[in-house]
Specification:
Blueprint lengths: L3 H16 L7 H11 L2 H23 L5 E7 L4 H14 L32 H10 L30 H7 L3 E9 L3 H4 L18 H5 L5 H6 L1 H8 L10 E5 L30 H8 L3 E4 L2 H5 L8 E5 L21 H12 L6 E7 L1 H7 L3 H20 L6 E6 L22
Parallel strand pairs: 1-6, 1-7, 2-3, 2-6, 3-5, 4-5
Helix pairs in contact: 1-2, 4-15, 13-15, 14-15
Length: 424
């Protein structure tokens, strides 16, 4: 954080330096300046302020208009989570920890946002991600619709749909991508492409019969048929659909029939769909130029220069925590690997791209009371941000890192510096 107080202090010392003359009454200020300049903490602050001032001074000619946008969401990644993850990463590198910086700590600008929903002081990911994608706050538990919706009531969806940033990118002719370590039909990724009266309507088996009869469509179906549904909803629009989708959640795309099980299915019957449809096959029928993959081997085999479209579902439900990835039967890519691969596919479009990357299991680690999983997933999330920085040009790419909400996560007591962040 570059504070006005620190800036004022630096300017004060600078002024003292310039005004200093070899007179006795200037000896004390000169000594103060000299002492300050040899102090490690002062020098670090002075360097930080100078960098910030240079960035602002040069911003008009150093940075152009963003052709590409990458939105990173650390689900449930509040300030205390970032603090603890920063310390843990530093300690894993053999440092005391507090001095460490995550990749996104080093970005030029930062700010704070209020995340409340229209009807809730403590929000959920459906309402908050809808707000981020559309610019409109809405209720808890609904996807891609405004506050006039009634949760769980299919008839209230029509007329209350919102337009998302991903849809605007599609309309503008850009390539689009979605990445999540959660199910790709979960609230955060779903809010980029779906309109639903309930975040839990991930497949038809999750929906009440009345909603199905009334014509509402489950979230998995909306992903597979995103292109045709967007064109039907907005007249005179011609889009080519989402180019990259990586995440978990195969069960919502497969029929409830063991013969459709994947190689790493953990349930006797992997699929949940009660309508008999195999949406993975429907996606492949929609896109003859597309590649459907389910494991690390398929992921590694992607040629980013020739692959036009890819749909990767790497787990029956959510993907593994980063700490558990090596235990996956068929293998899963990390969020940093998925980010790099997606960028290299999407940037083949000269018009640019929009990519949303969610580290969804930070939130799940907190819900489970597992600080280790929440923090190690945050560290891998920071690796993904660094991957994006390394594989894009700041002159044409805007990278935003944020969270949809925080979690109850307290660093308590008065531990000494360097105390193991996961210890006592």
């Amino acid at each position: 954080m570059r504070t006005p107080a620190l800036l004022a202090l630096c300017l004060f010392f600078s002024a003292c330096e310039k005004a200093a003359e070899p007179a006795s009454n200037t000896a004390a200020p000169a000594a103060i300046v000299q002492n300050a300049l040899t102090n490690t903490w002062y020098r670090a602050g002075h360097h930080s302020v100078n960098n910030s001032m240079m960035t602002r001074a040069n911003s008009n000619h150093k940075r152009g208009k963003a052709k590409n946008i990458i939105l990173f969401i650390g689900d449930g990644m509040g300030i205390s989570t970032v603090t603890a993850a920063r310390i843990l990463e530093g300690q894993m590198k053999g440092e005391l920890g507090e001095e460490n910086q995550l990749s996104f700590d080093k970005m030029d600008f930062s700010g704070l946002a209020k995340t409340y929903n229209v009807d809730a002081q403590t929000p959920d990911s459906a309402g908050t991600m809808t707000a981020m994608m559309s610019g409109v706050k809405t209720d808890v538990g609904v996807i891609g619709v405004d506050e006039d919706i009634e949760r769980g009531e299919c008839s209230t969806v029509a007329g209350n749909e919102l337009v998302t940033a991903l849809e605007l990118a599609e309309i503008a002719g850009k390539s689009t991508g979605i990445i999540s370590t959660a199910r790709i039909t979960h609230a955060t990724p779903a809010a980029t492409y779906a309109k639903s009266a309930d975040r839990n309507w991930e497949d038809v088996s999750d929906m009440p019969e009345a909603a199905v009869t009334a014509g509402c469509v489950d979230i998995a179906d909306q992903l597979v048929n995103f292109e045709s549904m967007l064109e039907a909803r907005i007249s005179a629009v011609d889009v080519d659909g989402i180019e990259v989708a990586f995440g978990g959640g195969r069960r919502h795309f497969l029929p409830k029939d063991a013969s459709f099980n994947s190689t790493d299915a953990v349930s006797a019957v992997e699929g949940d769909r009660t309508d008999g449809r195999d949406l993975t096959a429907e996606w492949q029928a929609n896109y003859s130029n597309g590649v459907y993959i389910t494991d690390q081997s398929g992921f590694d085999g992607l040629n980013t220069e020739t692959t036009e479209r890819v749909f990767g579902l790497f787990n029956e439900s959510h993907m593994q925590y980063e700490a558990d990835r090596e235990n996956d039967v068929a293998g899963e890519p990390s969020v940093s690997e998925m980010t790099e691969k997606a960028i290299k596919i999407l940037d083949n479009n000269d018009e640019g791209f929009f990519l949303m990357v969610e580290s969804g299991r930070i939130d799940h680690g907190h819900h489970a009371g597992s600080a280790y999983n929440a923090l190690t997933d945050t560290i891998e999330f920071a690796n993904a941000v660094q991957s994006a920085i390394d594989n894009t040009d700041p002159e044409d790419t805007l990278i935003i890192v944020t969270a949809d909400h925080g979690h109850v996560f307290t660093i308590a007591g008065y531990p000494k510096r360097g105390n193991p962040i996961l210890g006592k």
